[in-house]
Amino acid sequence: MAKVIIAVGTNCNQHDNALSIREYLGGMFGSDIRFTQFMRTKPIDGSDGYYINALAQITTNMPYEELKQWFKQLETSCGRNKEDSNDGYIPVDIDILQYGDRRFKESDWEHDYVKYLWKELKQKRK
Fold first, then answer.
1. 2-125: CATH number
2. What is the pTM (predicted TM-score) of this model?
């Protein structure tokens, strides 16, 4: 079993999309998922609008590549596509930040909201 830290976010229809992704992932991972609060954040690129972001910890036997592909398929089923993403329209974004002892997306770990939510998640793990 691997412990996995994921970041989830949305910048359109934020409230409904955040609730939907929380419910969907909760249904998939059940008691093996722990979410932080959803936090309103400004886009990193300085554009207009806002995101709603959260971190979650899951426990899974799914190999990293399979899990990553599953999340990409989930994003697509929630309406994400390349054209809209290029225009900054992100219905759902799910990124694996850590799988077991291996960290990914090091620059994401430097964002203030990730640092804040990571502290919250670590407190929930105790």
1. 3.30.70.560
2. 0.91
